């Protein structure tokens, strides 16, 4: 049976809003990771079959196929093509899936799966805003309205709906967020991320974690919606960042003298209620575990994107995972969520944490716009 191996994974630091990466062109940000990936793996870049890059806000400097432009900006061979994809927040996790599927199919041997987002330069929602300003229709047309009615469809409403459904209080959310910052601050202080990070613009560490935050400070913030429980403190941070992963076949490993660091065990994807939007990691995880024959107790390290605190909290409640194994070094509430870059960044963190701790299986998942979720299970080698 064919195998797909992860032979390299790197990322930039995750920069905060108006932080050290906020003035770096997104093409240059992605180019740094691509160049570092080639250098650290020692692979012949001309042998790469494709570069698949996730990017959500494909507007302005993130248009015109940023995957191709970033590869060329890195000074890499013109013979290698690139394609940019959008599965909302899961875009670069989907790029990993596509890369692995290309290798598993036998049609490709070396594929770069990457992602990038500069939310400082290209703000979230800018594509919809720009379209509406020019008199273009909203993304949802008449047939959508016939099915779901005229109601608000947003991640903010979805997060509040989750809190109502699972009965999460503001205090529970803030205690979770506080723990995320504490874990992330510890990881940064102990240098857990140092080997996986490519310094950019003088920035060497993730800028988001707040070691000095307190529950009292969080309690003083206004909710994002009147009458709601979600605040900025229990939401993922606006961020800038990029990550890249190299997927190789057994033949490529032999031909290029590469060292497999993990193998892809299972790829799963599912959809759920698009109004709740953020709940799909739950059924997607169940599907992935069933396909792999593993139980959640077999998984040593879990990365679930903290888009909002109720997402991991509901997932933990439904799946029954060990909270200590889930986002052990903090998540997006503390470390940030650069949209299309997050999937590749999380996979880089997951692989390195398995290697640091000696764990065997890792699982990655995240909620995505439209009520979707990817799940990837890997085995450290």
Tell me the strand percentage band. Answer: 15-25%
User: What Rg do the Cα atoms give?
Assistant: 20 Å
Question: Major sheet, described briefly?
Answer: 10 strands, mixed
Average pLDDT figure: 97
**CATH topology term of the domain at 4-124 and 238-256:** Peroxisomal Thiolase, Chain A, domain 1
Question: Structural class given helices, strands, pairing?
Answer: alpha/beta
Tertiary shape: globular
CATH architectural name of the domain at 4-124 and 238-256:
3-Layer(aba) Sandwich
CATH class of the domain at 4-124 and 238-256: Alpha Beta
User: Spans with pLDDT under 50 lasting ≥5 residues?
Assistant: none
So, the CATH homologous superfamily of the domain at 4-124 and 238-256? Thiolase/Chalcone synthase
The quaternary structure here is single chain
Gap between N and C termini:
17 Å
- How many distinct helices? 13
| Number of distinct beta strands | 10
InterPro entries: Thiolase (IPR002155), Thiolase-like (IPR016039), Thiolase_C (IPR020617), Thiolase_CS (IPR020613), Thiolase_N (IPR020616)
Keywords: Acyltransferase, Transferase
GO molecular function: acetyl-CoA C-acetyltransferase activity
Enzyme class: transferase
């Amino acid at each position: 049976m064919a195998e797909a191996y992860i032979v390299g994974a790197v990322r930039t630091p995750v920069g905060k809003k108006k932080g050290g990466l906020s003035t770096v062109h997104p093409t240059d940000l992605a180019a740094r990771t691509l160049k570092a990936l080639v250098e650290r793996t020692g692979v012949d870049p001309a042998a790469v079959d494709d570069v698949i890059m996730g990017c959500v806000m494909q507007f302005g400097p993130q248009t015109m196929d940023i995957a191709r432009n970033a590869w060329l900006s890195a000074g890499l061979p013109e013979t290698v093509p690139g394609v940019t994809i959008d599965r909302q927040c899961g875009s670069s996790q989907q790029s990993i899936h596509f890369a692995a599927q290309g290798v598993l199919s036998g049609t490709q041997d070396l594929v770069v799966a990457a992602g990038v987002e500069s939310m400082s330069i290209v703000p979230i929602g800018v594509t919809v805003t720009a379209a509406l300003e020019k008199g273009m229709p909203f993304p949802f047309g008449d047939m959508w309205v016939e099915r779901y009615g005229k109601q608000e469809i947003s991640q903010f409403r979805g997060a509040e709906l989750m809190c109502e459904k699972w009965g999460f209080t503001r205090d529970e959310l803030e205690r979770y967020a506080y723990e995320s910052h504490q874990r992330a601050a510890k990881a940064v202080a102990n240098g857990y991320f140092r080997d996986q990070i490519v310094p950019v613009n003088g920035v060497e560490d993730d800028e988001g974690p707040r070691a000095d935050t307190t529950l009292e400070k969080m309690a003083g913030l206004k909710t994002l919606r009147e009458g709601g429980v979600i605040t900025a403190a229990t939401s993922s941070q606006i961020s800038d960042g990029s990550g890249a992963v190299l997927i190789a076949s057994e033949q490529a490993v032999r031909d290029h003298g590469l060292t497999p660091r993990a193998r892809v065990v299972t790829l799963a994807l599912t959809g759920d209620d698009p109004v709740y939007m953020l709940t799909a990691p739950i059924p997607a995880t169940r599907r992935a575990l069933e396909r792999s024959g593993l139980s959640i107790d077999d998984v040593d390290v879990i990365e679930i994107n903290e888009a909002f605190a109720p997402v991991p909290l509901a997932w933990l409640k439904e799946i029954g995972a060990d909270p200590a194994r889930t986002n052990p070094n903090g998540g997006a509430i503390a470390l940030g969520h650069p949209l299309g870059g997050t999937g590749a960044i999380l996979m880089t963190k997951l692989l390195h944490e398995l290697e640091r701790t000696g764990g065997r299986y890792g699982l990655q998942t995240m909620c995505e716009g439209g009520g979707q979720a990817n799940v990837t299970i890997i085995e450290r080698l």
